[in-house]
Each structure stands twice: as C-alpha cells, then as structure tokens.
Amino acid sequence: MTSPTSPDTPTIVVIDDDQPTRHAIAQMLRLRHHAVHTFSSAEAALAWPPLLDAHCILTDIKMPGIDGEQLLATIATHPQAHPPIIMITGHGDIAMAVRCLKAGAYDFVEKPFDDALLLAAIARAIDHTTLQRHCDTLRRQVDTLAPLDNGRHAMVGRSQPMADLYDQIDTVAPADAPVLILGETGSGKELVARAIHAHSPRAQGPFVPVNAAALPETTLESELFGHTRGAFTGADTDRDGKLITASGGTLLLDEIENISSRAQIQLLRVIEDGLVVPLGTDQPRHADVRILGTTKVDLQEHVRQGRMRADFYHRVAVLTVAVPSLRQRLDDIPLLVAHFLSEAATRNGTPVPQVPPNTLTQLTRYHWPGNVRELKNTVERMVITASQGTVGPFTPDDPAATPDTPGRHLSLPATGGRLRDAMEHTERTIIEATLRDHGGEVGATAHALGISRRALYERMRKYDLQKDNFRQD
User: Fold this and answer.
1) How many domains does the chain divide into?
2) Which residues contact residue 207 at a Cβ distance below 8 angstroms, ignoring those fewer than 6 apart?
3) Could you give the 3-state DSSP secondary structure of residue 79?
4) Separation CA 330–CA 348 (nearest Å)
5) Are residues 261 and 317 in the same domain?
6) What is the CATH number of the domain that holds 342?
7) Who wins on pLDDT, 369 or 280?
8) pLDDT tens, 279-290?
9) Together in a domain, 173 and 304
10) Domain of residue 171, CATH code
11) What is the pLDDT of residue 299?
C-alpha cells in the first residue's frame, strides 16, 4: 500500500511480515506527511522497481523466505547507490546489531520500539539521503564544468567570495599589465593565474610558472634570464630563460617575495622595455611577456623593511587580485568535496564513496589552515581509507587540530597520549552513566547522548560494554 507523494515528500519503505506492526509504522509516518510504501515480504519489496529511490528502508529481520539480513546483503551489493536501511527486530542483541551494521545497515531498532526513537532514526536517515543526493547533484554540476581546463570555470565555487573573485579575474584578464595575486598558502593562487592567462589575449601563448622560493638566487637568475656558454661553472651551452620561453604568453612568478634585489632590477627592465639580458652577455633579447606574481605575505611590509625594492613592488602590483581563504567560503565545501571525491576516486580506480552527514558537518566546521589544498589532500585520504562505500574518517593534516572547532589550534601536551586517554576515559564514563540511567536500553541511551545507535554500538564495542550489565531488575 502506498500514500500520495510529491517531489519534496520523503519516501519510506516498510517491510515486515507482521501486519499490525507494518500498519502502525505506516500510519505514524503518514501522519508526519511521509510517503509510505509497505510490503509483507522482502521478495515483494525487491520486485518493486523504485525501491532504491526511497529515502529510507525499514525492514524486519526475522521474516519467512528472504530475511532482513539477506535483504540487506542483496541491497548493499547492488551497483546503484542505496538508501539507508534501518533494521527492526524483536530478537536483537549487540552481536546481531554489529553484524548488520558491518554489513551496511544504517541503524538498528528493537521491538517494542519507542516511537520517538524510531522517528529520530528515520529523520537521520532522510537527512543522510538528502545530503548524499545533494552531493551527487553538485558532483554532476562539477563534471559539467570540468572540460574547460585552465579557465575560470576550472575553479570550483559558487559562494559570494568566489563570485567576487570571478569578477576580479574578468576585470584584469583583458589587460596586459602585471598582476599581483594575494592569498594564503593552498588557496589556489596558481589556478587564478592560469584563469587570468586563459581569459587574456595571450591565451594561445605559453603559460610558464616559476617557483621563486624553490631555487637559489644564482639558479633563479639563470632560470629566468637564461645564460650563455661559459657564464658560470657548468654552463656548457647557451640556454634560453623562462622569460624567453614565455614570450607571447604569461610568466608566473610564484612566491615573488623571494626574488633577489639584483633579479628585481633585471625584471624591471623586462617589464618596462621587454628586454632580457642573459647571464654572461651584455646583449639584450626581446621578450613579449606578461608577468603575474603570487604572494602570501605583506609585500608593503617587505618594502618598509628593505627586503623588496619600492619601484619593483609598484610595477608588479599595478593590478591586484585577492584570493579568499577556504574559511571565507565555507559554503563551497560541499561542492569542493564532491569535486575532489570524483577526482580521487578516478585516480584510485574506485567507486565514488558516500559522505556521512556528520563527516560533512565536520568538514564545514574545521578551520582549514591549509585551505583548498588541505581539503583536497583530506578527501583523497578519506577515499583511500573508504570502507563499504563510505569515506574513511576525517583526519586533519595538522595533528594538533580539532575537526569540530573552527579558527582554533589546540596543542597536545608534551606527555603525548594523556589528553587522548583522558578524553576516552571521559567518553566511557558518560556512556556508562547514560546506559545505567536507561537500564541498558541502547535506543534510549543513543537518543539521550544525541548520537546514532550505530555510533553507540561502535563505542560500546570499543570499551567492551555489554548492555545486559546495565539492566535494572
């Protein structure tokens, strides 16, 4: 039996061979404006084509024919993404619950169940499905943008800070003046530089990046300006520098604050006259090149400290573009996660895993000191450690950071594991006390703690807690 639906109505499938139980659950859900489809057997449910399009599946475990565990195994191995499955049984214990959860069940409810606990589990399952489908939609949107390599649309983000950044790129790209790109480490400054190049009149020319921080002073000068044979030890042949290589296109000076004073003077001549003087000669060569620079520091402070020439600063900063940090564009995290999930899964040759709602919440609450680069690395790690189609745990690159605290850095004490031991002791104590208060009832305890039954079972197994030890006779 079904109930009326609309595109925004959550769809729940109830499978139970006991007609009164099936009817009671369906009535309770319909009163809360859910679309409900009921089946008296797993065989009948599996024969219904839209089964995997539901928001949540509730199934009894002990049923004639295909039982709940066999149904779970059948659905969990289906190539199509499946909705969360909540197991209902009057014969449940921790061993059965853990077995079902390991096989892919979303949650576990015992008969006779408390209506509030069952509704809370269903609400979490619906939220999980809604979020997962939202991520899938975002991933498809990202896929439609991906073919435009090196252009503005290769950047992922639809927040207001990113809209402002796109406007800045559109403004500076058509010009031929130098551009200074400002932003924190890992925020995507080189990607912005590539977008500026791709939308400029020089788009058909070369884009040549040079990392000024990665090369010693003399090597950097040779790399930029080139050299003649015999200019220095090891210079066996003439060699064009990056400025000549980039002629007709764009040269990116990454971490421009590391350019030496002597190289700054030479670059000024390139900017002013387009003349490049290779090491070992006084004969200039012409280079038609646009110069972009990136920095994560305050270059005006470098000028005040004498670490950068004022005339060089003013020439390279004719135009500036500010790249927002990830902390300033948290709304983009679901879209970025969907994008990086698809990329990482492709690289590792695995299906795209699902992201639990609590994990995505952690990702949006973390302060991301490494910005988009750190998020990309984190998602890659989560894909590699994925299990049963779900991403692995969120572990920040910074081991001293806490995923749930934005904008803060927490340091572990020098004693090493004491803080972790104290936190685990506190967690165990709270779980024990709550189990005791609720007579060992797992559902009521999970509800009181504000976590899912699955999460509580995992912690009970971790701390070797048996619910029977807390029953009140």
Assistant:
1) 4
2) 150, 193, 194, 197, 246, 249, 250, 252
3) coil
4) 27
5) yes
6) 1.10.8.60
7) 369
8) 767 777 888 999
9) yes
10) 3.40.50.300
11) 92
Q: Give me the mean pLDDT over the 169-174 stretch.
A: 91
Residue 113 DSSP symbol: P
Contacts of 208 (CB under 8 A, 6+ apart): 242, 245, 246, 249, 250, 251, 252
173 and 298 inside one domain = yes
What range does the domain containing 422 cover? 418-470
Q: Side by side, which strands form the sheet with 56-60?
A: 35-39, 11-15, 56-60, 85-89, 107-110
Tokens of 444: 């009521």
CB 333 within 8 A of CB 341: no
Cα-Cα end-to-end distance for the chain: 41
CATH of residue 67: 3.40.50.2300
> pLDDT tens-digit profile of 97-119?
778 888 888 888 888 888 888 89
Residue located via tokens 């090597």: 219
Residues 27 and 116 reside in one and the same domain = yes
Same domain for 122 and 68: yes
Do 45 and 193 belong to one domain?
Answer: no
Task: Please tell me the predicted confidence (pLDDT) of residue 147.
Answer: 36
Q: How far is CA 197 from the centre of its chain?
A: 27
Check whether the bond before 64 is cis (ω within 30° of 0).
no
The three-state (H, E, C) secondary structure of 252-270, written as one string: EEECHHHCCHHHHHHHHHH
Nearest residue to 195 (alpha-carbon basis) of 172, 227, 218? 172
171 with 284, same domain?
A: yes
Q: Which of 266, 293, 324 is the last residue of a domain?
A: 324
β-pairing verdict for 226-227 and 56-60:
unpaired
Task: Return the structure tokens found at 14.
Answer: 């109830």
Model pLDDT for residues 410-456, shown as the tens digit of each residue: 333 333 444 455 556 667 777 887 787 778 888 778 777 767 777 78
